Amino acid sequence: MTSRENARGRLRSHEACLNCRRKKIRCPAEKPACSSCVRLNQTCLYTSVPRGSRGAQSDDRLAFLEEKVNLILSGTRPSQSIRSDQLPEAKGNGNPETSYPTERRPSIEPTGTTKDQMFLGLGYEDQISHPSSSAIAKAIDLYFEYCHRQPIWCFEREEIADPSYLSEELVCSLLALTSRFSRDRDHLRHYGDSARSLIMLRMANGTVELETIESLCLLSYSSFLDGNIHLGRFHLGLALHLCRSATLDLESSYGGEGPINERKKRLYWSLQCLEQYYGQQNGYLCVPSELMRTFFVTSQSDRATQDGTEINPPPLPRDDLGCTKFSDTGIWSLAAHFGWVWSRVRRYVSECARNRLKEPWRHDSMYSMILSDLTEIENKLSQCHRYDSVKFYERTAEQLKINRKYWTPWLKLQFTYHSIMTVLNHPFLYIVASQYNENLAIPNTFWRRSSELVLLHATWVVRLIDMITEKKFRLIDPFFGHVAAMAATVHLYYCCAADARLKYKSKVDFTKCRRFLKSFVSFSPACHILDQTLDKMTRIASGSENIDYDWEPEKIHLSIPLMWDVLQVNCKPKPHEVSTGGLLHPSLTPTVSTEEEEDNPASTVEVIVAISPNVTVNTADGGLAAHMPPTMPRVSSAPASPDMDLAEKLLAPADSLMTNTPWLWADPSQFVDMENSLGYPDSESGLGNIDGFSTWWDFGNL
């Protein structure tokens, strides 16, 4: 028998009964009742399947392809037929009011299953094994344990409580995303390709539903975890275009309140969050982040004065976790606000990489505008979500685990805020800019202020890492690993500081950042690539594979290409390994340079004795002053020196920089076996044991 006849034979043999189709098992196809239904004492029902015209010229391949098209265009969808316990008279109308029992009707219209007739004859049933109900339930549990609101927030658990009502593409997308957390990851990995095929067939058939776009959202996030930027941005862009086609990006499309509208809002803003952190930053097709400034920066009173002619995006989803008043903004929504500022920082770094830096101290520079927007959005942060109010450092590990869906976006907000300030003031940006632009003279006041800010917020990143490590709170979003890598480059820069204690502190903090990044390697290839980049940068800077305890450099060499890769989060493989992630034909593979320019001495910048920022606070008052605005009078139990003014309290000599930060100090054992530390080690930091002291970094918190 020829292969074509085999294929045609398969088409004839897959007229399964409805019970077998629902259970996703192979049907014996006996009529009037199959042996499987007879054994289980169930009513066996079949649906007629239009097959399309079959001409006499069976050898003509064109006729065979036309038959496949007819199957797609005229095939009967299970959402229009009965399922499980439906009565015969309820089938065939496709109306959700009648096609589901009243007591089990889901919140959205259900879609087809793997045995959908529109997919028969396309080889789908032979490519994968049908997932069992236990596998689907496990994938849902893993999603809510690791991925929910971190950062995507498409649905709540009760909305997908019954897996039998989920579309097949959503099931496959969930399996593909959560496979990295399962022991059967290799067996489940192929579900991503299956989900993509199902999504494309729905688009070709004109049956795209909300769950289809949600599937693209999950696939996009999965691709970003894998470091497959090409495929992730394709899924993300396709999902956003489908949202625009369905007008989900317009406020006017949401007529009222309800679970469906809330779910649509969550989907739209989840896609926006992915766009902010992983979307394309250059090119003619990318959407400038400035277009959303009005939504994120404008206050409620300003919106009330609008005449109604403005086209506004949909409101943020309802989120009252941790809120104490009705007017408080939810923590996930606040994280989205700070994510928008981060997208502008990404644009700023991209401009710097192309030597388009405008003097940052000018009032109309992008640097100044980003700081202005950040301050305006920080104003939206309600007191109930602030660092000193939630007291994350006092929470037990069990409390954090129970309220994970609050603490995950709260940590995302904290990391985003400190990464914004770290990257904006990164000394590498302005060292390189001054080398390429002779007219760019960096004022000493700007150098001093930016060096203080970058060290302050890079230290806060380590502070957060220490708290997370102590609480054994597991994070999954690769953005957290990216922030650790960017903070590590700051601490690498200060490893050659003039102050011996700052030099030691920088080595310890650099080690902590690397260890934290390595904890993401086991499930995120994107972080693995970033970790390899940081390791290579370390080798170039130190002249060896590791920064050991005795390393006391007077100068270091920072690789310019590798620094740009870290700051721009270019999670890409080596040039000879570049591919398009299974998306494009090899003929369209982007052309890249094969030169190993990272090892070229001309592509490094030499740093000799980095300036030590002079940052400290007076601690004689038991720590009260650290939480007061600098303009307020000092409250102290010790007599103040008459010649000590405010500037001296905030900017003390360098020898007092590390005096009041005992939690930062670590023993040399932290450097031992660092390469093998892939999990969260037990922390020995002094958190909670600094009574009577205030630290200079307290001025940088939220």
From TrEMBL:
Pfam families on file: Fungal_trans, Zn_clus
Coiled coil region boundaries: none
**Residue limits of the Zn(2)-C6 fungal-type domain?**
16-46
Asked whether the UniProt record includes Nucleus among its keywords, one would answer yes
Q: What is its main location?
A: nucleus
Task: State the UniProt keywords alphabetically.
Answer: DNA-binding, Metal-binding, Nucleus, Transcription, Transcription regulation
Gene Ontology cellular component list: nucleus
Q: Which GO terms describe its molecular function?
A: DNA binding; DNA-binding transcription factor activity, RNA polymerase II-specific; zinc ion binding
Single GO biological process annotation from the record: DNA-templated transcription
Q: Which InterPro entries match?
A: TF_fung (IPR050815), XnlR_reg_dom (IPR007219), Zn2-C6_fun-type_DNA-bd_sf (IPR036864), Zn2Cys6_DnaBD (IPR001138)
| Segments for region (Disordered) | 77-112, 578-601
Which SMART domains does the annotation name? GAL4
Q: State its location(s).
A: Nucleus
Q: Report what the protein is called.
A: Transcriptional regulator family: Fungal Specific TF
Gene source species = Penicillium bovifimosum
Source organism phylogeny: Eukaryota, Fungi, Dikarya, Ascomycota, Pezizomycotina
